Prior knowledge:
heterotrimer, A: 366 residues, alpha+beta, Rossmann fold, CATH 2.40.50.140, six-stranded mixed sheet, five-stranded antiparallel sheet, 20 strands, elongated, C: 301 residues, mainly alpha, MetI-like fold, 14 helices, globular
Amino acid sequence: MAEVAYVNASRIFSGNPPVRAVDQLQLDVADGEFLVLVGPSGSGKSTALRMLAGLEDVDEGAIEIGGKDVTNVPPKGRDIAMVFQSYALYPHMTVAENMGFALKLRGVAKAQIKEQVAEAAKMLDLTKYLDRKPKALSGGQRQRVAMGRAIVREPSVFLMDEPLSNLDAKLRVETRANIAALQQRLGTTTIYVTHDQVEAMTMGHRVAVLKDGLLQQCDTPRALYDHPANAFVAGFIGSPAMNLKTVPLTAEGAKLDGIVVPLSRAALDKASGESLGEVTFGIRPEALALVSSEEQGMNMTVELVEELGADALVHGAVKIGEGTERFVVRVDGRTPPTLGQQVKVAVRDTTEIHLFHPESGDRLEA
Amino acid sequence: MRRFLDRHWYAYAMVLPVVVVIAVLVLYPLAQGVYFTFTNINEANIANPVLDRAASYVGVGFRNYLKVLSGDSSYGAFWSTLLRTLVWTFGCVFCHYTVGLGLAMLLNRQVRGRALYRVLLIVPWAVPAFISAFAWKYMFNAQFGIVNQVLRAVGLPGPVWLGQSDLALLAVVIVNVWLGVPFMMVALLGGLQSIPADLYEAAEMDGATPWQRFRHVTLPGLRSVSSTVVLLGIIWTFNMFPVIYLVTGQNPNTRILVTYAFERFFAGASRDYAIACTYGVLILSVLLVFATVYRRALRKQGEVW
Amino acid sequence: MTVDAAALRVAAQAARTRVAGRRGRRSRLSSVGLHAALVLAALIAVFPVFWVLVTSFKPDSRAVEATPKLVDHSSLDNYADVLSGAKGDFLAWFGNSVLIALLTTVIAVFLSATTGYAVSRFRFPGLRPLMLSFLVMQMFPFAVLIVPLYNILIAIGLQGTSIGLVLVYCTTAVPFCTYMLKGYFDTIPSDIDEAGRMDGLSPFGVFWRLVLPLSTPGLAVTAFYSFLTAWGEVAFASAFLSASDQSKTLAVGLQVFVQQNRTEWGHLAAASILVAIPAVLVFYLVQRFLVTGLASGSVKG
Lengths: 366, 305, 301
């Protein structure tokens, strides 16, 4: 059990120019917390995790585990365990040997290793497979062995690097829940890397969003969803992605296809303070609704309807300024519009509107 | 500096033994060998601890190189020997590669008894070279050799294979091809097995004929293996001395650069170390030039090696 | 719910049957042609060895018959003569050769494994020059450097010893073996190394306990190659071992034997067979690893 801290930690890959894969990362993870690092590929999330593991050098700043500076401590001195994307099971060892290897290296007595392995195997439903080699296991079983190898050691921190990305969709959802439950039960500080924002939202106590090596925002899933700190986070978190459009600004609000969507006073003041003629206007598909033709709203031509069962996603073109922009609206699954139909779209609730600076992307309100 | 060592000391610790051995047993002798090429060192003037005789060889500048490069036949007729070496090298490697590839493709098929065929086909590699040389020398013997026996049986004349004619060169090429095919075959077989089967299936879907599949899937898939083994094959064959030396002895018709270096080194009353080393340096130069050109050509085709 | 391994096996079985069915469509004619070509090639590959074997049982006089027969007064006499030492201290040579070849194998495999691992996993300054020097080393006919080598071996006190000769052999075997093993190590995912580091191994521990056990095919080929390098070598062995008959290797002894008994083809054949046996034995032990081991090595080059 331990808390983890990145203290302005950077990893710089040599090259011309040098690449700052992780740039001045400042992040505190509480004891027992499940923190998810999420971001697109190349965002530095895996590098950040590997710095914590001791597999990657820390070029600037420091890493602390349990209050101790471990920046220059080799992996084995950090009391951490890691689950790899490829699982990295030792092909020449049985499941039991794989799981007990770290204990064996530490000189733990054989009987105790056996006991601990058996216990972990029971927890992960692997008891039947202890004598098999990894080659003879299915993908899901291998994944569980990789988990087992980590938990047998009872480390103070778990690191997981996209541990579910090699599973099929159904198994992934199931294992997602299992890992979250296991972490809850063990109460071990866990840092989890993924590129899948659904995983991030469903598993993490807090989620840290990275882009180009820079931490964009770190908060609870709810807060990330409701108050994204910038346009990148707004677009990255949530599926389907938030509608983000640059729209002209008037004294009352944002101008979309003839209608003016009223905006909060605070936001308008901030925009006028910076004398912005435009803002990046964000609204989630579920905050939009189809309305009858008499009501006020934007005219949209339906270009694509994705039926998801319970609901449907309607993609369509809306005139904004001179050109057209694509919007996605989440509607009831039983009565979707048809292709080519003209529909009216209105904002359900103006409090669900997000405004961002058109250049910096920063959020335009308190 | 500390950081540098911190980061790399594992690597250096692991290569250190090899580097030490190479430095002592390769670099130093090589440097001394190069130095010898500028002297007239031979058996008669070298330091001899047994006879308690001090070294008395002297520097002769570039004279050894001039003698050799003049093409004088008393110094091994360098240019015609080089030509023969090239014929020998490319002849052997061409046969190694084509026969090896052919056999590898046969073995890469689903065929009954594949494991047995494979073992039998690799046998020439497993037999020590001097024994193979002995076997072939025996088989090529003009009077009681089985080769001529077979030729006569089908009504052909049985020539003197290992005599003073170009037949001897043909004979050693045959022996060396026999020796070298297994290595190529095994390497190419591994290369073939690493070509994903779905590439062939995709080509089949696109309507490629077997020849087109060979041309556009197999050969490109083997490129990196081929470029490596061909280069190695050329270097090894260029310097292949036991086969020629053991099968035909000092026969001017089978003389290549490296066997001449050995003749100078081992044979005759005055072992001419200086000329032998000069030949060694020239061989190295030829191969270095070749390897550089080869690498350029590969790089031009987009292969980083 | 998890996919059961048994179910997976069934699926794999089905896939195999399907492939086999497809392959089964090869026509009878092409199948015969395929086997004919392989049989012919195998005959050519094996025949010289077989012929030496046949000859080894014949008396010297019968070995040079103008119309050779398979069996011609054949007996084990040649072998008895050779083994009894009538033609030189064969058993002593044999012992020397085994010792030297095994030592070379062990040391060369060890050296090329550590080096191969370092160049496969670490990016350290000096990596490229090292690899290039391995290539260049194969371009020089080192036997012409016997004189300087001799001087060095005297200087470090190894002249006339087996270990000196073994080290010289290592310099010939290690460059190619390193290339080969580097290629093999490259195929082992570095995740395995990192998992080992996380489990508490040092970089040397990772090499010793994870990478080596996973590299059997590569190591087998390396062993085979270095064994053969040492087993059949003549020039260095005759220069660096002391001149006494007792300390010769087989290759050297046999060479002397050949020069002294040019006409004793039967005895020569018997001795050759005896020399070939250990090499073929080693070959047989490693042959099933040969393709995988060499393949990944040369694919990556």
